[in-house]
Amino acid sequence: MMLEAWQNLCKEFTPEQFGNLLRRAAPAFRPIPDTLGYHLAEGDIFDGAAQIGVIEYPDAQTVTVGTVHIKSELTARSSKRRQYDLVKTILKAGNHNAGVFAFYDDAGRFRLSLVTVTYHGTRRQFSTFRRYTFFVDPESPNKTFLQQMQRADFSSLTGIMTTFSLEAVSDEFYKEFKPKFDAIAAAVQGTDDGDLKEDFALLFTIRIIFLGFVQKKRWLGNNPMFFNSFWEEYRQSGTANTFYRDWLQPLFFEALSTPPGHLVAYGHAPYSAETQTVLQMAPYLNGELFKRKQDVDDLGLWIPDDPIEDFFDFLFQYNFTVEENELFDEELELNPEFLGIIFERITNMDQGAVYTPRVEVDLMCRLALVKWLIQGTGISK
Q: For residue 130, is pLDDT > 50?
């Protein structure tokens, strides 16, 4: 099965295994091994680069496929621009329409990137490259990557671009997210008002997803999987349907709403000494998200255990990244921009709840800065 093959690649990346997968996934793939080491500079962060093959399409479009070894540890943030520039250089020399490259380190971490070329008439413009990437760490969830690779269409360049597109990833996530959200809303206890249930469910899901980023930054007990441990400790306590009221509410409204050092005393949860310390030293997220919302959080509403567990099982299979997308880079994981798109779909768009993508914000900021400079200096050119 292809899914199992991609799962094995996530566990232990090797160029050979990657090449074998492409042979199976892309009917038009031709193994054409070639060294690309001459593109590397002395003292570079890369110490090996090779083409493993080329995908050749009937319309004369070609996609080069290669691997690049990185000397040091590869992270979600490391050397993304340098990786992009290397692929750009390789594409210039090879006259290909696109490149799919895997950057990998000795620990099995890899970044699978797509770089495509845009055209203006007959002239190739390399300045308008966009790179779409999946970062895979054997020790982190890789559900987004596995979902997209399982559905990947390598029969055309358009199909590859769809596989690596933020829109496609968002669509797949939303297909799973919406039923989970609806189940939580339906399960809310303490009211029969459908709109109020949805408001409460929306607050719950936003808070939990936001805390997915907080735990990714290791701000909750230096544990990137804090919620797994938190939930498991609750399950071992022997109580039922008290997780929201006795465990999550103290986390939301005390631990994250007061400066570090505050002893969490709300509720009756039998926290371990370790968990009590984590809550006591949790970051002070001085904002509105973890303050009780009037006419929602003050009405005694709560959520049973089963839909919470189901939502956790769904959500924490995904890899969270705290890096927002850049103009030259799209990280196809759960990031702030990605989630802005998701919540735009579920909130009241008819009332003006529209997420503004980073590229548009960047343009508006640049235009505003130019206008300010013109007014301040009197120089119009």
A: no
Q: Are 207 and 375 in contact (CB under 8 A)?
A: no
Nearest CA-CA partner of 342 in 164, 163, 209: 209
Looking at residue 120, what DSSP letter applies?
Answer: E
CB of 264 closer than 8 Å to CB of 252: no
Q: CA-to-CA distance for 128 and 64, rounded, in angstroms?
A: 19
**Contact, 334 vs 319, CB < 8 A?**
yes
Per the rule left: phi > 0, alpha: psi between -120 and 50, beta: everything else, 121 is left
How would you label 260-289 residue by residue, b for 16+ Cβ within 10 Å and e otherwise?
eeeebeebebebeeebbebbbbbeebeeee
Angle ∠(213,356,131) on CA atoms, nearest 5 = 70
pLDDT in tens, 69-81: 999 888 876 667 7
- What percentage of the chain has pLDDT greater than the value 70? 83
Q: At 206, give phi and psi (nearest 5°).
A: -65, -45
Q: How far apart are CA 163 and CA 149, in angstroms?
A: 7
The span from the first CA to the last CA of the chain, in angstroms, equals 60
DSSP characters for 314-343?
HHTTSPB--PPPBTTEEE-SB-HHHHHHHH
